[in-house]
Structure formats: C-alpha cells, structure tokens
UniProtKB/TrEMBL annotation:
InterPro entries: Glyco_hydro_43, Glyco_hydro_beta-prop_sf, Glycosyl_Hydrlase_43. One of its GO terms (biological process) is carbohydrate metabolic process. The record marks D128 as: Important for catalytic activity, responsible for pKa modulation of the active site Glu and correct orientation of both the proton donor and substrate. It comes from the Bacteria. It holds the Pfam family Glyco_hydro_43. The keyword Membrane does not apply. Belongs to the glycosyl hydrolase 43 family. It comes from Enterococcus faecium (Streptococcus faecium). This is Glycoside hydrolase family 43 protein. Signal peptide: none annotated.
Length: 422
C-alpha cells in the first residue's frame, strides 16, 4: 500500500453537496446540479485521488422550466443494492419562505451510465432525501429534512424524518418517525444513515451552508431511535477557524475502502475577498472510529484540512492539469450545461461552421429556458477570442458573461474595451 499526499478540494469549482459511494473497486461522487442540465454529474475514481467526469444522470426524466434560480435539483444521494444503483433527489419548484414547493423522487439503473428509470415519486414534506438499505433487516428506509412552514423562526427546517420504502409497491409505506430535531446550530438537513458495530449512525449538516456550516453525528441502537447526540459535536466545522483555507464545510458522507479505512467527503468553499468565486467545492478527509464508537477526523480534531494523506494500492500522483478545450466539432462535449433545458441541435449548432458553436434562438432572461451553454470553472482561466469582419462591420463571435460571483468578460466593440470584473 502507498500513502499519497492530496490537496483539497478534490473536485474544484461548482461541485456542491457531494455524496460518495463505492461499488467493488470503483468510487463514485455525485453532486447537485440545481437548474443546469444535464443534471447530477457523476465523478469516478479508482483511488480516491484522481477523479474523472464519467456521466450525467438526469436528462429527460425532469422538467425544470419555470423553476427558480438556485432551485431544481438539490442534494442527490446514490446507493447500491440488489444489483441496482438507487438515486434519490429533490426537485425544488419554489425555494421561497415560509413555503417551499419540493418533491422527492427515486430512479434506478443497473449501470451508473444508465439507462435510468422514470422517476418514482416519494414525498414532498422536505428536501435532501437519502435511501438506506438495512442489511440487518432487509428493509429500505428514506430519511429527509422536514420543512415546517409553521415555525416562527426564519429557517423552517424542523429536523429529520424517517419512513420505510416498499420496493415492491415502489412507494413509501408505514409511519413517519421524527428521529432528530437538530441542535442549537439549527438548519438541520442533508441526513445520511450508516450502520456499524451494532449502531445506526445519523450524519447531518447543520448551521446553514454559509460560514456556520457543520457536520453533526448521532447514534442509536434502533433505526427509529432514540438517537444520542455526539457529545463532541460538531465533528467538522470551519465556523471558528477564520484562517482555514477551506470554509463553509459541511454536508458530509462516508465511504469505506476495501482495506477498512474510512473517508468523508464534504462541501467547502475557498473565499476570495468574501466571495467564493469558484462556487461550492468537494473535499475529502480520512476519519476514524473511537473506542466509544464516535466518528472523528484523523489528525485534525474538527478542522478541515487542505493537505491530506490517502492510502492507495499503487503509486499515483494527484493530477493538477485541468485544461479543457472544445473546438466545437461534432457533438457538444459533456462538460457543457444549459439552463433548465438540455443542449441539443434545435438551438445549439456546432455544424454550421468549423470551430464554432452558435445559438439559434433569442436569449430569454427568465426562468423557463436560456439557450446558452455554460461550463463549470474549476480554476482561474485564460481564454482567446476571434473577431469576424462581415461587410466591413466588426462582429464578435463569442461572449463570456457573469453568473453570480464569477468573473466575466465582455468582448471589444467600438464603444468599450475588454474588461474583467465580478
């Protein structure tokens, strides 16, 4: 075995809400995609060190037109049982307060690349669903955040609920159990269940996705509770560590390697002058179980670490070259996304002229569709453009725009020069 130095984040740029899974010798991480299609990006690795974008799961199964900005696909979770991949996710139709219009679904596939089934509706009482396959009893259970609009607090997350999923009936069945009300950190969400050494473990995110973001763990002898809170909670947070490179850390999920080591992936940001210009990213860290059965970060107490060590079967080096180039010849590469609609030949033409991608419809700046293709930035970038001359008039052939906190560039015309801003 080899021990490799790895630098976090392992998935840079817009890769929020990571959920990790191992199937045999392969590891998978999936991330939230919000209003961008194709949805739910899948990364694959053989060693936890280097990750490649393998596929995207959601294509025709969802309709996102009319969904709000920052709504749509939240917090997917993937699991494997009975020879199938199970994927649960939330489709957010309204993200306002006090009411949220959220719907949780399940799809399955025999291969990670699909084809995936049509969605099975689960519930609408909250978000962040997670499916647990209980090998002790053979039952399947769904946990999710419970949104209670009646609360008089600004945030309406009132805890975590559990209900059995009937795989034959393809629906939730039986009583709903509220298994965790959360701590004073509040905003309890992102639940995942694990079983180890006779205990059921409930891992949640708390404190919101800002600087208070944290990971909290509880345990119970019975899956329906009562759950005992980790006396040393939170087990991960950067809320009291302003000097840490990694901030807003939370939303943890666990994986065990074939050699028995445990690792946790989690969400983080790297703010620059207060703004996380590359978005929410994915980090990883080794964890271990104490003699009294609690989960702890290895070598760092509760601190997120930028540099970590990962055990691998062979000598590897973390890849640092993330160059991406598209000459727009043939089909669009899978790196591209579009807002609420799939990129397709109806409006995204890569064959009209060599090395050119042209949108064939007007840009509609609303919540139904945007006929523009986008790419996720993972590093500071440089780019080149070309100006075309038609009938003596200067025409620019590319435009980069600003999406929230990201840099943007407007190309030169006769009225203004190049500029970069945020």
């Amino acid at each position: 075995m080899q021990t490799i130095k790895v630098k976090n984040p392992i998935l840079r740029g817009f890769n929020p809400d990571p959920n990790i899974l191992r199937v045999k010798e392969r590891y998978y991480i999936i991330v939230s995609s919000f209003e961008w299609l194709p949805g739910i990006r899948v990364y694959e690795s053989k060693n936890l060190v280097n990750w490649s974008h393998t596929t995207d799961i959601l294509t025709t199964q969802v309709s996102l037109q009319g969904n709000p900005t920052n709504g749509s696909i939240w917090a997917p979770q993937i699991s494997y049982a009975d020879g199938l991949f199970y994927l649960v996710y939330t489709d957010v139709k309204s993200a306002g307060r006090p009411f949220k219009d959220v719907h949780n679904y399940l799809i399955t596939a025999s291969e990670i690349t699909g084809p995936w089934s049509e969605p099975i509706y689960l519930n609408s009482n909250g978000f962040d669903p997670s499916l647990f396959h209980d090998l002790e009893t053979g039952k399947k259970w769904l946990v999710n955040e419970l949104w209670d609009y009646r609360l008089d607090t600004p945030n309406k997350s009132s805890g975590i609920v559990l209900q059995e999923y009937d795989a034959e009936k393809k629906k939730l069945d039986g009583p709903i159990y509220k298994i965790f009300a959360g701590t004073e950190l509040a905003k309890t969400e992102a639940p995942h269940l694990y079983f180890r050494n006779g205990y059921y473990y409930l891992m949640t995110a708390e404190g919101g996705t800002g600087r208070g973001h944290s990971v909290t763990v509880c345990l119970a002898k019975n899956i329906t509770g009562p759950y005992e809170l980790d006396p040393g909670f939170p087990m991960l947070t950067a809320s009291d560590k302003p000097a840490s490179t990694l901030q807003c850390t939370g939303y943890g999920s666990l994986v065990q390697t074939p050699s028995g080591r445990w690792y946790m992936t989690y969400l983080c940001t790297r703010p620059l002058n207060g703004a996380a210009i590359l978005g929410r990213e994915t980090a990883i860290q080794e964890v271990y179980w104490t003699s009294d059965d609690w989960l702890r970060l290895k070598d760092s107490q509760t601190t997120p670490m930028e540099e970590i060590m990962i055990e691998t079967n062979e000598e590897v080096q973390q890849e640092k070259d993330h160059q991406f180039m598209d000459t727009f010849e043939g089909e669009l590469k899978k790196n591209w996304n579009a807002g609420r609609i799939l990129p397709n030949a109806d409006w995204c033409d890569t064959k009209c002229r060599p090395s050119m991608c042209r949108s064939g419809r007007r840009i509609y700046a609303g919540i139904h569709w945007l006929p523009i293709v986008y790419n996720r930035w993972s590093h500071p970038i440089s780019f080149s453009t070309r100006k075309d001359l038609y009938d003596g008039k200067l025409v620019t052939s590319i435009l980069l725009i600003c999406i929230r906190n990201h840099f943007a560039s407007r190309l030169p015309t006769e009225s203004f020069k190049n500029c970069i801003y945020w």
